[in-house]
Amino acid sequence: MAFTFAAFCYMLALLLTAALIFFAIWHIIAFDELKTDYKNPIDQCNTLNPTVEKVKKIKRVKIALKLVLPEYLIHAFFCVMFLCAAEWLTLALNMPLLAYHIWRYMSRPVMSGPGLYDPTTIMNADILAYCQKEGWCKLAFYLLAFFYYLYGMIYVLVSS
Amino acid sequence: MSAPAGSPHPAASTRIPPKLGGAAVSGAAAGPGPAPHQQNGPAQNQMQVPPGYGLHPQNYNVPSGHYSQGPGKTTSLPLDSQSGGYYSGVYTIPTQNVVTPNTANQQSGAQQIYGRGPPAPHIVGSTPGYFQGAASSSSHLHTSASQPYSSFVNHYNSPAMYSANSPAVSQGFPSTCGHYAVSTVSNAAYPSVSYPSLPAGDPYGQQMFTSQNASTIRSVRENSFSGQNTAVSHPSPLPPPPSQQYHQQLSLSGYSPLSWSASGLPSTQDNLIRNHSGSLATANNNPNAVAESSSCPVMQTVQPPESSPVVSTVVSGASSARAPPTANHLVETVASVTQPSELLQQKGMQYGDYVNNQASSAPTPLSSTSDDEEEEEDEEAGVDSSSTTSSASPMPNSYDALEGGSYPDMLSSSASSPAPDPAPESDPAPAPVPAVPQPSKTTKPFGYGYPTLQPGYQNAAAPLSSGVQPSSPVYSGFQPYAQQYPGMNQLSSSFGGLSLQSSAQPESLRPVNLTQERNILPMTPVWAPVPNLNLDLKKLNCSPDSFRCTLTNIPQSQVLLNKAKLPLGLLLHPFRDLTQLPVITSNTIVRCRSCRTYINPFVSFIDQRRWKCNLCYRVNDVPEEFMYNPLTRSYGEPHKRPEVQNSTVEFIASSDYMLRPPQPAVYLFVLDVSHNAVEAGYLTILCQSLSENLDKLPGDSRTRIGFVTFDSTIHFYNLQEGLSQPQMLIVSDIDDVFLPTPDSLLVNLYESKELIKDLLNALPNMFINTRETHSALGPALQAAFKLMSPTGGRVSVFQTQLPSLGAGLLQSREDPNQRSSTKVVQHLGPATDFYKKLALDCSGQQTAVDLFLLSSQYSDLASLACMSKYSAGCIYYYPSFHYTHNPSQAEKLQKDLKRYLTRKIGFEAVMRIRCTKGLSMHTFHGNFFVRSTDLLSLANINPDAGFAVQLSIEESLTDTSLVCFQTALLYTSSKGERRIRVHTLCLPVVSSLADVYAGVDVQAAICLLANMAVDRSISSSLSDARDALVNAVVDSLSAYGSTVLNVQHSALIAPTSLKLFPLYVLALLKQKAFRTGTSTRLDDRVYAMCQIKCQPLVHLMKMIHPNLYRIDRLTDEGAIHVNDRVVPQPPLQKLSAEKLTREGAFLMDCGSAFYIWVGKSCDNNFIEDVLGYPNFASIPQKMAHLPELDTLSSERARSFVTWLRDSRPLSPILHVVKDESPAKTEFFQHLIEDRTEAAFSYYEFLLHIQQQICK
After folding, report:
1. Which residues of B touch A109 (CB under 8 A)?
2. Residue A133 lies in a domain
3. pLDDT greater at residue B450 or residue A100
4. What mean pLDDT, rounded, does chain B reach?
5. Which chain B residue lies closest to A125 (C-alpha atoms)?
6. What is the number of structural domains in chain A?
7. Residues of chain A contacting B952 with CB distance shorter than 8 Å
8. Which domain holds residue A38?
9. Residue B830 and residue A128: Cβ atoms within 8 Å?
């Protein structure tokens, strides 16, 4: 039982994954709101002043869309940590997602600032559906990863 | 109607006996409406019918019966009658009128009563009569009535209707006619609305549709028989049995109310009857309503207000009113309606109304409500409150007839409309088709014609036969001829229509062996298929000009749609110029509480107090105010409100629909004045055009205007009132642009007009010696944004080269060696997101950026276009522009500018598209910013913008038989009114694949595919897009072969509805946007793509598949009459060199350009008479005009070219191409059925498809 660098990596990954799960959930909610925005304004707005509610929602969506880059960086960060810790299996499990992130960012629409989503195409139903699906898949991945890291951390702690 | 004395045609009358009866109008009420209707119907029917079912719809409106009186009565009675039904007479009327102008007079005397069925109030109509004498007035009324119907019918019918009306008009009342004509026009455009008014317009109508006229005539005759008389003039009336349709209608509605009592004039009665029938139809829709019948009238009234007063008004009282004075036209029939009696007064009233309307509208702007960004929210509010108001509406004011000047452009609208109208008629029957075209043509004329014609009308009308008439009586001689002709057409068409009904599907499903069929292209233009709905709904349905769906039979589920392999989507032209449009002012805009859908003709009334939304099926309460029908002054007939009688209506919105007070019209011109720009010389043209049109810029007293010029620096102009001359302020810090003074850069147009004119005079010479070659477009746009952001408005950018300084600078990306590459075409997307971000910022501040690119070199349109694409602007591109070296481009710019500066404009608009639960919007195409899944943010909306929407079916539609689509466009008019234009389209749901194929609208499908292909080329690659297009044909034809035919044919079989599909796809593949292997400049290609994205369907189709006509032998056979011109209608030729003979001359209409190809051995007579040169050799290489020669063939050719030209917003350039000239490659590249070095011929393409299918 020793506190190794690998164990530290797992602990850190555990915490960061929790954050990623939070990001993923926010992402899903944001796209869902974009999609259902129009469906029943009345019900949604009954509780509060519609404007306030709307502004809040728009802000929430904007924030969620801006979390993309932090998410990618966080994920890339602990991939590097695992690399340093020589946790090959864990790294291998994360490689597909890392590759996907890189591809996704490379193929983003032309834009000058950071960002992934183009406000002019985001409402396209195909893209919206794709983004929603992406959100769910990532959520699932992060959840599984969370438990895997937990297991990995304990395993490393116990075995060493 | 029938009965009564009047009598209208007995035959018909059978049904309606009661009403007729006596003159008594009242009888109608008592009497059961239906019968009467029928009677009328016959006559009318014939007329209308032919055109297509559409007529019926019109009839429906009528239902009220009121009309019936109209014709006869109206005239005579105007006074009395008013109340009588609005329009029942309408339909008939026209005819009658026609028939007997004299009669009409008599009638007037006679009386009127008809109307009554419905509540008395109406009244309406008679006005005209008053004026003129009974006779004339009556006719007017009738006409008007008819118009309304027709409108309902819409497109399809309308033509027929029109004609009917017009004839009547003409005969009856010269003066009135004018009005009617107008209305007719409008009909064409907007069927639904206002036909009624038409009557007044007559001239047009008559002119326009010869055939229609004929029909009318017929009807007249019929009437005469039945009725007795009306027909007087035409002795030989046809016995006009009422058309079946009518009967149906009648039965449905049950109108009984009937009013026809009409006074004794038979003709009138007929008319009434017809009207009734119309109403019935409507009624059918809403059973309850029907009963009441009154609704119809109401509707009509409403309409009038709208767009063209004329029309709507027509309906009821209107007719009378209108008739008298031309002036009325616009205004309002509606008003008249309301106020039954006084015709004269009515006129006055109408005006008054009009005025009021305006006034009322103006006030609207509220400051308030903070929220509303989107209509919906606001709307909601409105709804809630709605009930409060009660009935302001009754007041004439409430329905404003006019929009202020926006409609001026009727012409343009009409142009667009033409095609559509025909479509509506749809009935496949050949006959109808011809009729249709006419209508459209007519329409155009209307716009203009109105004013002028009026006087002539009556006489003209009589002439029916020809458009000519308007002017003159002289023509009357023609009548006989015309009548006969038309009659024939009508009959055949009507028959056709009937048969179609029963056999429509089979016809559209008839298998066609594509490889065997050499002449796949029909001789006449292709019209939109008519949805297979029942007659009532058909009449009420939205015009295909405004709203089309690629599948007129919606598949029940996504699975079925996938099997069919056809694209499902809508094509919209929401802000089209309309000649008539019901405008509704009411405190309460009735909307579904749950989905916010506006009440429309396709909702169902569960009882008097509740209605069921047709999109979400929620049951809503009918607000108290809605129970009252201001037109009829009756209570308890919500189904007769104009909102429920027209699928296209416009509401004057309350402050609930505003986020801020309506903005004034603000125009900013951002002009490139670098060396390159000065060299090209566009400034002279622009300044000249602008100073000429300064007074015609849409706007009110608050209109503001400003100028910014730029080269490597940015120049602002202080035009503050009080300065002795414009003051130029130069900002050279382009990295951090600021405004030199906070105000006075955008000045009030009227206060500073002198300064503005001075500036416009000085501008062209101010930079004449400039040596500055750089262009700081980006910073100039940023400055423009800062200038505009407090108000919003329109920025017009003129650019002549690649921006080379400051933010947004661009590099040349085009490699000229790649222009004819068959592989990869790069750089179709933007190089930077600067322009897109700028556009989004602008859009957020309600500013649209329109780009005029006049450049001779590559200017990276792909990047620059973003500034317009996302801010809902428009893009114009003039390659190789030079004011002296390229005079045809210069002329085109001049004409385009005229249209651009004077066309209608809407500010701070949003458009929401709703569809029945189960369907969902998928992707939008056009210039806008998508703000929510169904909400498009449009900083500006212009009448030339088209949109496309892809749909998907999310839930099975098995439990519904109809689906509806509704677009609501909320905008601020140039007069500062907040308005909502609502279009509703209703389509049937089918469960079998065969039905899906039967309902394909191939033109809409091809336009949607073109839009999708543009997206694909940008997001993926051009070759992907081309493959996708080919696959669309292969998949759909193979799916058809394997699922519907169930036989594995070796032949390539397509259903008739899809027979043009491969041809159009091939045309697309050879279109500039998608072609490969032919040298195409990148900017040209990108511009073609931009046009595909934002052109409305009618114009896009010409771009994809040009029309080819042989023009060296134009004859008057089948010619139509527009205004007072005879426009020959040569058959369409297929686009193949095999059709070109050296002995002929051919005209190709490519949308943005016309080519006249003159064969080497072309008849010298043609060259001399039309081109003005002695022989082929002496024709110059560059010839861009047809000389005005005083020969018959020259006149024909010119009127044909003018007619084609009038139908589009942008003036096409005419090129005369000699057989030997180098320019002929331009011409030959449009012959898409021929083989080129890089592409298949049509036959090869078919074989290719066949091969793919067999794989």
Report:
1. 833
2. yes
3. A100
4. 67
5. B922
6. 1
7. 125
8. 5-50+62-108+115-159
9. no
